[in-house]
C-alpha cells in the first residue's frame, strides 16, 4: 500500500488516498502528544506532513507512519486480509 495524497485536517486528522483508490479520513488524535508524537502539539507541525518516495507519511525529524497500518485503520481490515501469507504462517505454527 502506498499513500498518493494527504491533506491535514483539524484535530489531528488526515485525509488519505492510497494507490488502490481507497480514500478517507484517519483520526490520529489518540497518539498526538505521546512519545515521539509530542512534536505534533507544536503549532503548525502536524500540517508539515508529506509523502515519502515509498508512499509513507513523514514529518520533519524523520518522524513517520507506516502506510499499511493507516490503511488498516481506514478500512477496518485485519493484517491477514492484506497479507495472506500471515494466515498461512499462523496455520503452520
- The run of helices and strands is EEEEEEHHH
Indicate the CATH architecture. 2-Layer Sandwich
**CATH classification, class level:** Alpha Beta
- Tally of helical runs: 3
Overall geometric form: globular
Beta-strand proportion: 25-35%
Number of strands: 6
In the predicted model, the low-confidence regions spanning at least 5 consecutive residues are: none
Helix content: 10-25%
Strand order, main sheet: write it out. Answer: 1-2-3
CATH topology: NE0471 N-terminal domain-like
The description of the largest β-sheet is:
3 strands, antiparallel
- Our count of domains comes out at 1
In short:
With 93 residues, the protein is of the alpha+beta class. 23% of the residues lie in helices and 28% in strands. The chain is globular, with a radius of gyration of 15 Å.
Structure description:
The chain is built from 3 helices and 6 strands. The chain has 93 residues and is α+β, with helices and mostly antiparallel strands. The protein has one domain: NE0471 N-terminal domain-like (2-Layer Sandwich). A hairpin with a 4-residue loop joins strand 2 and strand 3 (23-27). The longest helix is centred in the C-terminal third of the chain and has 9 residues, at 67-75.
Amino acid at each position: 500500500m502506498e499513500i498518493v495524497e494527504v491533506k491535514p485536517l483539524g484535530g489531528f486528522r488526515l485525509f488519505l488516498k492510497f494507490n488502490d483508490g481507497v480514500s478517507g479520513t484517519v483520526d490520529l488524535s489518540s497518539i498526538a502528544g505521546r512519545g515521539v508524537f509530542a512534536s505534533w502539539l507544536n503549532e503548525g507541525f502536524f500540517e508539515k506532513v508529506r509523502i515519502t518516495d515509498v508512499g509513507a507519511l513523514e514529518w520533519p525529524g524523520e518522524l513517520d507512519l507506516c502506510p499499511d497500518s493507516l490503511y488498516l485503520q481506514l478500512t477496518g481490515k485485519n493484517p491477514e486480509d492484506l497479507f495472506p501469507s500471515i494466515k498461512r504462517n499462523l496455520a503452520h505454527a
